[in-house]
Design a protein that fits this description.
Chain lengths: ~400, ~375, ~450
């Protein structure tokens, strides 16, 4: 039973993927931009949602790479290129953030000097919540993420050729440094882009909440990509369903973690019943928002929990494909629930059905393109990684 | 001198590879009642023995779900139905607050059920009299050897065949294991009966002594013997021996307002009526008048008691004297009492007294109105009956 | 020394036969305790005696013997409770979480860590029971049908604690016991003393190393680990809820649950490292509990310590960001008010000192790591103290402000809890195998068959 003759062959991803990617980007942008004609502020917030969606998957993927190095895991080595490709969307954030930075005044209440002047609390926050500092923070944070992405991926790609173990050691050191940097930057991004939409509200756990959701979404995207690629023979032929187990287990774990963080945040604010905190949740209750709030528990926790509970379920490609798509939708629902209530006109209706998800469709197209172009130049398997053999031989 | 019954044949192996191979071969040979013994779980043995995966997980799931349901339903019943209390302004069925306990009970029941189920149902433990115990075979497989045991009651069991199979597989120390000789004894043996009696005596003595004697000794009596003065009993703390004490000099009842004209016969009472003669005040005054004043003074203050013959007849309230009195004087009479009229201070609050006074004034005006003061009155108000 | 990442590190550092493992781990159980043991035991028993005396005074004279009073209604009692529960969490984490993460290096330390969990939870349980004032009525905390027709307040975090800590104790005990069953079987088969044999037989329940049993056993072990993991998170979360559901500034903040859990793991691992440094030396287990183990644990200490630091920063930032003057005052008061001494001990021990573990040399040097982890334990005790006392001693109404000073009985009970913990640890080392014998055999080199695709 020797598998020694099974070797990875680099294959380019099919042209149809590129066409599909461009198509989705085109349709998505068309829908999204048309939405501006109907309700400009709402469309802008939709764009913000998609931006955060892309950011969460990009930075979540970078975190998975970090985790692999710092924990010395080997099951993830054969598929490490996939999170690397997802993380390559991070430098694109520089471009994607421009429409948002140009429209800060339409998004953030605290960016209006007159509003701040008349509000003692907002004045108190203005050393942090002011336009120049916000812009600098955004640029610096995307810059830091891009730097780490570049360093990780450069070492990983160089290793394909040189097979130098020192590059693994370098990446391990980089991971150790990245973890605290990641914690701070992700927290600040969450506060900047989402918490400050409701500038009078605050929650110390918000950064962790965003991290939990992002990591789950990144895992779901990665799992989906891994399964499609494996089934179509783009990954190493020695890979089997057991490699999927850890992805399924991580998804299960972090769904539980997300639920735990979400419940803590909600329950503590509900219990103390202080108006300055409950106002945020009350805005997410009543009318359609009641259904979305309750739906979030069901969609983002109960269903994935039940589907992924058993051990065989965590390895079954069909189930994993289904639940990964489900979890990505749940993450969108989560972001929608956080971001959209801050828009006055956000009620369900034609707008939702037709225009609201335009930019998200474009995001999916964007990721497909990112994959296509990365796969042209890079191997889909890190062939030079010293842990590759061990990883391929991984058995439960 | 009974024949010892053969339980099975055992063989020892030196390496994990050998035992895997042996297990697979034993299974292939068609034996069903056999087992493999190892000091720790050897990977791949499940597959070699073609064992079906454990379904212990279902026990966990069922009991876990049961725990969750039980905890939630119980808290719902206790907090919403049996003894609902508004705590912190939260609803009776405070679901977010019930989640932590639900979770803990789920975990507790799931884990206990798993372990107890595994030990009792799957393993049939405790069982220290299984034939393999205390054999050199067991000592070896606990420590560093691996073993196979094929039981004698397997259909295909034949001592020669089994020995040969073991030899083929390179098994060492092939030995026979016998069922232990089980002692039986009659139930009415003196030693056993004595033991039962002693245990019964000890149990009852302990229970009796604990519940009737021990609990009445310090410190278990601390809650009963408290250094405090009990009501309505003697006290050794106070000199006069009384448990009940009078209130301190100058103690005032809650809501008490002093009336400085109490006891005086006809003082000049400068109090004026603090209430406005609104329709509510007059209604209240009428009601109280009819309740408290009319038994003696009559329904209209004429002095004709409404309870003819039972109650004294006071002078009319429409006399010059009373009409000329200040409100404060009437207030004084009601509060203090006058002649045989007792004080009504304990039956009427101060506001009620003032309301009555307004009503009396209304009655007085009704009986002594000048023509210009009379206005057209509607027919409904000519009724005498107290509303 | 460059590591070869393509090779798996062995769990045991030198080749050791299965029989040698038996001999090594079961030996202390066969031998009579020596002088060093009795000296150590006498020290811990003295500490325990101080605790017993303090608790006796408490029972006889009442809670007034402690320094608690308005406004500081909770001080050493809750601080010690949270401290010990936190220490317990490391054990379950090593046992359960590292098992689920397939980290084989946990094998040498899991048994000891689980034992520490149980002893720590026992020490923790003392405090909620005795702080009630009439501890002999502690049964009132449980929902049993009674003549008053009353139920406990299921919406109160204090009641959640009752359920959480008792579940945690029960499950930890059960998990530990299940791991011990095969070892009891081995000890039963090894021992020559008749008394010991009957005791081991009873506790082994008749375990006979059958693979048909091992199969269910492994499944149960995995299920238990799968439950113990969320359980350990939930227990310290519920403990954090004791504080966070209130409206007191400095207590009511949403980050408390994960922050407390990270802090618990942080302090727990520090205690595990402290104890293991001595255990591996005294019992000659240096090649089973290796420098690699200690280094890995130190990395986890660094990680969780940084998480605690993150939480401090978040609390501080959001206190400013919120614009809530009471919240802002709490943090200024912590750093510069009457308890500033406690605050700065906490910050230096929890945030600054563990950063030394960035350096590999320090991670792998025993004296250095011992000093650091002791500081971590001190720092984490002070963290619970700072959270509890500083928020209470100065909350909304200045006329209610006060200053808590511990009484000698507060300190005596704290000392006694350490005495209890270490006494139990010492007794454990002499009565039960400190390393899970069957587990360590399973990961020794050559223990698993070489077919089956590689390293399994």
């Amino acid at each position: 039973m020797s598998h020694n003759d099974l070797v990875y062959q680099k294959k380019n991803l099919p042209e149809s993927l590129k066409r599909l990617g461009f198509l989705l980007v085109g349709i998505g942008l068309a829908l999204g931009l048309t939405g501006f004609l109907f309700d400009a502020q709402r469309a802008l917030f939709n764009y913000l949602l998609s931006f955060v969606f892309i950011m969460s998957i990009g930075v979540g993927s970078l975190f998975l790479i970090t985790l692999e190095y710092i924990a010395g895991a080997d099951w993830s080595t054969p598929l490490r290129r996939i999170p690397e490709f997802f993380a390559s969307s991070i430098p694109l954030l520089f471009l994607l953030v421009i429409p948002l930075l140009l429209n800060i005044h339409s998004i953030f209440e605290w960016s209006h000097k007159d509003v701040v002047a008349g509000d003692k609390i907002l004045t108190g926050k203005s050393p942090f919540l002011n336009v120049p500092f916000f812009v600098i923070r955004t640029i610096v944070i995307i810059g830091i993420w891009s730097l780490f992405y570049y360093l990780f991926v450069r070492n990983s790609r160089k290793q394909d050729i040189t097979k130098d173990q020192l590059l693994t050691k370098k990446n391990i050191k980089l991971s150790a440094i990245f973890i605290p940097v990641f914690a701070i930057t992700v927290t600040l991004s969450a506060i900047d882009w989402m918490m400050s939409l409701a500038p009078h509200w605050f929650s110390t756990i918000f950064g962790i909440y965003f991290f939990a959701g992002s990591f789950v979404a990144a895992l779901a995207a990665i799992t989906l990509a891994v399964i499609y690629l494996k089934e179509n023979g783009y990954l190493h032929p020695k890979m089997n369903n057991e490699h999927l187990f850890s992805l399924g287990a991580l998804q299960f774990t972090f769904i539980n973690f997300w639920a735990y963080i979400a419940f803590s945040q909600f329950m503590l604010i509900w219990y103390a019943n202080l108006p300055e905190e409950t106002v945020w949740f009350l805005a997410r209750w009543g009318g359609m928002w009641t259904y979305i709030s309750l739906g979030l528990i069901f969609v983002h926790f109960l269903v994935p929990y039940v589907v992924l509970l058993s051990q065989p379920a965590k390895m079954d490609p069909k189930r994993l494909k289904f639940i990964s798509i489900w979890i990505l939708a749940a993450h969108v629902l989560d972001l929608y629930w956080i971001i959209m209530p801050q828009v006055q006109s956000a009620k369900a209706g034609i707008f939702t059905l037709v225009f609201e998800f335009g930019f998200l469709i474009a995001s999916v197209g964007l990721f497909l393109l990112v994959f296509y172009f990365n796969a042209k130049k890079q191997n889909l398997v890190p062939v030079g990684d010293p842990k590759l053999e061990k990883g391929l031989n991984f058995r439960l | 001198m009974s024949e010892r019954k053969l339980f099975g044949l055992t063989a020892l192996f030196q390496t994990p590879d050998e035992i895997i191979h042996a297990a697979a071969k034993v299974h292939e040979a068609g034996y069903k009642k056999y087992d493999v013994h190892t000091p720790y779980p050897v990977h791949g043995m499940d597959a070699a023995m073609k064992l079906k995966p454990s379904n212990l997980g279902f026990v966990t799931l069922i009991f876990g779900l049961f725990g969750a349901a039980f905890a939630l339903l119980f808290m719902y019943w206790a907090m919403s139905k049996d003894y609902p209390m508004i705590i912190g302004g939260k609803p009776f069925f405070a679901l977010p607050a019930f989640i932590p306990i639900t979770f803990e009970v789920t975990v507790l029941l799931a884990t206990l059920a798993t372990v107890i189920g595994m030990l009792t149902f799957y393993f049939k433990f405790p069982n220290n009299s299984q034939p393999l115990h205390d054999t050199p075979y067991m000592k070896a497989v606990s420590s560093d050897k691996y073993g196979v045991c094929i039981e004698a009651n397997d259909e295909l069991f034949d001592p020669e065949k089994v020995r040969n199979l073991f030899k083929e597989l390179n098994g060492q120390n092939i030995s026979e294991v016998y069922f232990p000789i089980v002692e039986t004894f009659k139930i009415f043996e003196p030693k056993y009966l004595t033991l039962l009696v002693v245990v019964a005596l000890l149990t009852s003595a302990t229970t009796y002594l604990t519940l009737n004697k021990l609990l009445y000794i310090t410190p278990f009596t601390w809650l009963m013997q408290q250094d405090r003065v009990n009501v309505q009993s003697r006290s050794t703390f106070y000199a006069d021996g009384f448990g009940m004490r009078n209130p301190v000099e100058g103690t005032v009842a809650r809501g008490f307002i002093p009336y400085e004209y109490k006891g005086l016969a006809a003082p000049v009472v400068p109090l004026s009526n603090p209430l406005m003669p609104s329709s509510e005040v007059l209604k209240l005054g009428k009601k109280r008048f009819l309740t408290f004043c009319s038994p003696c003074h009559g329904n209209y203050g004429d002095g004709d008691s409404r309870l003819r013959g039972q109650f004294p007849n006071p002078p009319s309230l429409h006399s010059e004297k009373v009409r000329g009195w200040q409100d404060g004087n009437i207030y004084h009479v009601i509060t203090n009492g006058q002649n045989i009229m007792p004080s009504y201070a304990s039956q009427l609050s101060r506001d009620e007294r003032w309301a009555i006074i307004h009503y009396i004034r209304a009655l007085q005006k009704a009986k002594n109105a000048s023509p210009s003061e009379i206005i057209e009155a509607k027919k409904e108000t000519s009724s005498n009956v107290a509303q | 020394m460059n590591i070869d990442y393509s090779q798996e590190l062995p769990v045991i550092e030198r080749r050791i036969t299965l029989a040698e493992i038996d001999q090594l781990i079961a030996k202390p159980l066969d031998e009579k305790p020596d002088r060093k043991f009795f000296i150590a035991l006498s020290i811990t028993l003295s500490l325990l005696l101080i605790g017993v005396i303090s608790v006796s005074f408490l029972l006889f004279f009442g809670v007034g013997v402690w320094g608690l009073n308005q406004p500081v209604g909770w001080a050493f009692d809750i601080t010690n409770f949270v401290f010990w529960v936190g220490i317990g969490h490391a054990g379950t984490l090593i046992s359960a979480v590292l098992y689920l993460l397939r980290q084989k290096w946990r094998t040498g330390i899991a048994r000891f860590a689980e034992a520490m969990t149980i002893f720590a939870v026992m020490c923790a349980g003392i405090f909620p029971i005795f702080h009630t004032g009439r501890p002999w009525l502690a049964g009132y905390l449980t929902p049993y049908p009674n003549q008053h027709g009353l139920w406990v307040n299921f919406t109160s975090p204090l009641v959640w604690d009752v359920f959480a800590v008792s579940t945690y104790f029960t499950v930890s005990l059960v998990f530990w016991y299940v791991g011990l069953i095969p070892d009891f079987g081995l000890l039963r088969d090894r021992t020559t003393s008749k008394l010991k044999k009957s005791i081991y037989s009873i506790f082994s329940l008749g375990w006979r190393n059958s693979h048909r049993n091992w199969m269910h056993y492994e499944k149960a072990y995995m299920l238990l680990a799968g439950f113990a993991t969320p359980l350990v998170l939930s227990v310290h979360t519920i403990v954090s809820f004791d504080f966070a559901v209130s409206i007191i500034p400095g207590w009511h903040t949403t980050i408390f649950p994960p922050y407390f859990v990270a802090g618990a793991i942080f302090s727990g691992f520090a205690m595990v490292v402290t104890v293991l440094i001595f255990v591996r030396k005294v019992f000659d287990l240096q090649h089973i509990i290796t420098l690699n183990h200690l280094e890995k644990m130190n990395k986890i200490i660094l990680l969780t310590g940084s998480m605690v630091g993150y939480a401090y920063a978040m609390e501080f930032f959001i206190a400013w960001y919120s614009g809530n003057p009471f919240e802002q005052f709490v943090f200024i008061n912590r750093a510069f008010g009457p308890y500033a001494w406690a605050y700065w001990i906490m910050v230096s021990c929890n945030v600054f000192i563990p950063q030394l573990f960035w350096f590999k040399k320090i991670r792998r040097t025993i004296p250095a790591m011992l000093v650091i982890v002791i500081f971590v334990n001190v720092g984490m005790w002070f963290e619970r103290f700072v959270i509890t006392v500083t928020s209470l001693h100065r909350d909304f109404l200045p006329s209610s402000w006060g200053y808590f000073v511990p009484s000698v009985f507060d300190l005596g009970t704290l000392v006694g809890s350490f005495g209890l913990f270490f006494t139990l640890v010492l007794l454990f080392t002499k009565t039960l195998p400190v390393v899970a014998i069957s587990e360590i055999k399973a990961v020794a080199e050559g223990a698993q068959p070489s077919h089956n695709g590689g390293n399994h």
